[in-house]
Amino acid sequence: MVVPIEQIEDALEVPVPLSTQLIMSDSRRLTGPGLFWEKPGAVLELQITDFEQQVVVDQWAVEMKRILLAIGWEKEQTTFQIFTGGANVAVSAPLDCLYSAVSAAQTAWHFCASRLLEQTSGNFEAMCQQLRYVIAQESNPPLLALMAAAGQNKIDILCDDDEISIGHGTGSHVWQRDDLPPPDLVNWAAFHDVPVALITGTNGKTTSVRLAATVAKQAGLVAGLTSTEFVRVGDTILDYGDYSGPGGARMLLRDKTLEMAFLEVARGGILRRGLPLRHAMGALITNVAADHLGQYGVNTVQELAVVKFAVHRTLTDEGVLVLNADDPLVVAEGNRTPVKLMWFSIAKSNPEVQSARHKGQACGWTENGWIVVFDGTSENLIVKIEDIPITMQGKAVYNIRNALGVACLCHVMNIDTLAIGDGLKFFKNDYRDNPGRCNEFKVKGGQLFVDFAHNPHSITAVTDALNNIRAKRRILMIGHAGDRSDDEIKGLTKGAFSLNPDVIIANENIDYLRGREVGDIPALIREECLEQGLAEDHFFYTENAVAGAQKAIELMQPGDVVLLLVISDRNKVFECIEQAMQTE
Predict the structure, then answer these.
(1) Element of type H or E holding 401
(2) Spatial separation of the C-alpha atoms in residues 213 and 423, rounded to whole Å
(3) Over the stretch 436-473, which tens digit does the pLDDT of each residue have?
(4) Which residues contact 446 (CB under 8 A, 6 or more apart)?
(5) Are 225 and 213 in contact (CB under 8 A)?
(6) Tens of pLDDT, residues 381-416
(7) Which of 40, 70, 348, 500 has the smallest set of CB atoms within 10 Å of its CB?
(8) What is the DSSP track for 313-370?
(9) What is the C-alpha to C-alpha distance for residues 361 and 348, in angstroms, rounded to an integer?
C-alpha cells in the first residue's frame, strides 16, 4: 500500500538554523532533466553573505554525503551552481522518493549551517532514523520496476503524484500510482512513443509551437501543443492556462489521439521541476535575451542561456537540437553542447551555417526571398517568405526567423518539404491562429495591431516590423507588470519609443500589480514619455486594457498605425475591436 503523498510531504520537519548570513530560501523536487543534469532529485536555493560560497557548498556536500551513506543512498550524487549572493545545491535521488530527497537535502543544510555558524545541531543518528522512516513510507518498488522495464524497452515513462504513464499519445497507457502492474504483465508491444519536440527561448515560443502544430496538421497528423495559454490536441482545447511546465506536457502526452507533440518550455518550469520527458526527437531554441533575471539563482543572460539549453538532456541518441545561429548567446552555448545540432540563420553566409553545409550537416537559411532547408546533400526551397502570413510580406523579420526555425524543426521531425511549406502558408497572423502575436485589424481607415510583447527583445522586434509600415500617425498603448523594477519599466517604455509614437496610452493592469499600488506603473510610463519628449497632451491614462483600446480607436484617423501591447484582458480587447469594426 503506497502512503498518500500528503502524509509523506508533511512527515518530517527539519529545523533550520536561524541566521541572516546563511538562508535556505527555497527547496523543491526535481522530477526530470533540468539545469544541473538529467537526474531526478532535490535542490535547495541558498542566500549566502559573509561566507565564501564555495566553502558553504563544499560543507553542504560533506554533510550530504554523510547522510546519503546513513540512509542507504550511497550511489546518489551531489552538484551545485554558484551565483551572485548565493548558490543552488542539488542531490540526485530515486524517482519514487523525491519528497524524502528534499528532507534529506534540508537535513544536510541543517548540519552544514549549524557547523558554519557554530550553532548546536540536532542528533545526527536520530535525524537520519527519521529520514529512513520517511523513505520507507514513500518508497514504491513497483514504480522503480516499471521504470527499469520501460528503459529496457526504450519507452518513455511519465510520473506525477497520482498517475504513472508509459509511452506517448496513441501508444500510451495510464495507471494510478498505487496500482501499478508488475512489468511481466505489461504488454510492451502495445506501447510506444510519438515524435515530440520541445521549444524554448526568450521570445517566439508560443508562435513556434502553434506554427509547428499547424505544419504537422498539414502533414495529416493529429498534432498537439502545450503553451502558456492552453493545451490542445488537434482542434480540441484540453484546458486553458499556463501549461508551459511538466503538468501540461503530461496532460498532452497522455491523450490517446495524439500523433505528434510540440511542447512550449518556459524557464520557470525547467528550474522548478525540470523537464517532463526523456525521449524527445527534437528541440528548438529560438533566442536568449534578458528577461525575468534574478530568480532561482539565474542572474545573468549567460546563466539564462544555460537554463534554456537544458532541453538537450531530453533528446534521444538520434535527437537534434535546432539553434538560431544569429544569436551570439545561442551560438556560444550551442558550441559547448554535446548533441547533434541543426543551425539556422537569416543569412546563408552565417559561419555556423557555412560550416554545417561544408560538413554535410542539415541547416537552414533564407535566400532570394525563400526559406531554404539543406538536408545534408541537397538544398530544398520550402516557401517564399512573402507567402508566409506571419512575416507581413517580409516586414516582420523576427517572424521570418520563427518560420525558419520551425521549418528546420519540422524537418528534424521527418515532416516532408511540401507539408512544411503548406503549413507555413496556412498559418495566419490573426487572433484565431496566433492570438496576441501581432494580430492586424483594419479600423477606421487605419491599421491596428495587438501584441503580447512584454520584454525589451519582443517590443523591439514588433516596433521594428511596424516601422516598415507607412503611417500618418503612430499610436501606442502600453502597460507593464508590477514585478519589474522602476528602471526596467522605464527602460521598456523607452524601448517602445523606437516606434516613434505620436500618442501614448498607459493602461493599468490590475491583475498584474504584483505588490505595487494602482497608478504606480502608469506614473513611471508617463515620466519616461515626457523625458523622451512626448507632449503632455499626447499622453493618456486608462484604468484597464479595454478602456485603452477604446481610447486608441476613438483617437484613430485614416492612415494611422496603432499598436496595443496587451498583457491582460486580451479577449475583451478583441471584442472591443470587433465591435468598433462592426459600427463603421
Answers:
(1) helix 397-412
(2) 9
(3) 788 889 998 999 999 887 777 788 888 888 888 898 99
(4) 471, 472, 556, 557, 558, 559, 560, 561, 562
(5) yes
(6) 999 999 999 998 898 888 999 999 999 999 999 999
(7) 500
(8) GGEEEEEEEEEETT-HHHHHHHTT--SEEEEEEEETT-HHHHHHHHHT--EEEEETTE
(9) 14
What phi and psi values does residue 469 have, to the nearest 5 degrees? -105, 130
Q: Position of cell 555558524?
A: 117
Q: Describe the strand order of the beta sheet including 157-159 as a list of residue ranges.
A: 157-159, 163-166, 173-176
Q: Residue 216 contacts by C-beta under 8 Å, 6 or more apart in sequence?
A: 223, 259, 260, 262, 410, 413, 415, 419, 423
Is pLDDT above 80 for 336? yes
What are the Cα distances from residue 75, in Å, to 27, 71, 93, 109, 387? Answer: 22, 11, 9, 20, 56
pLDDT band at 295 (very low <50, low <70, confident <90, very high): low
Instruction: Please tell me the distance from the alpha carbon of residue 269 to that of residue 555, in angstroms, as a whole number.
Output: 41
Share of the chain above pLDDT 70, in %: 96
DSSP label at 384?
Answer: E
Whole-number pLDDT of residue 519: 85
- Alpha-carbon distance of 178 to 4, in angstroms, equals 9
The answer to whether the CB of 79 falls within 8 A of the CB of 42 is: no
d(CA 291, CA 455) in angstroms, rounded, equals 7
Give the Cα separation of 50 and 22 in Å (integer): 9
Amino acid at 432: R
Up-side HSE of residue 140: CA atoms within 13 Å toward CB? 31
Q: Which three cell numbers stand for residue 412?
A: 528534424
Rounded to the nearest 5 percent, the helix, strand and coil shares of the chain are 40, 25, 35
| 170-174, 185-189, 422-426, 514-518: least confidently modelled range | 514-518
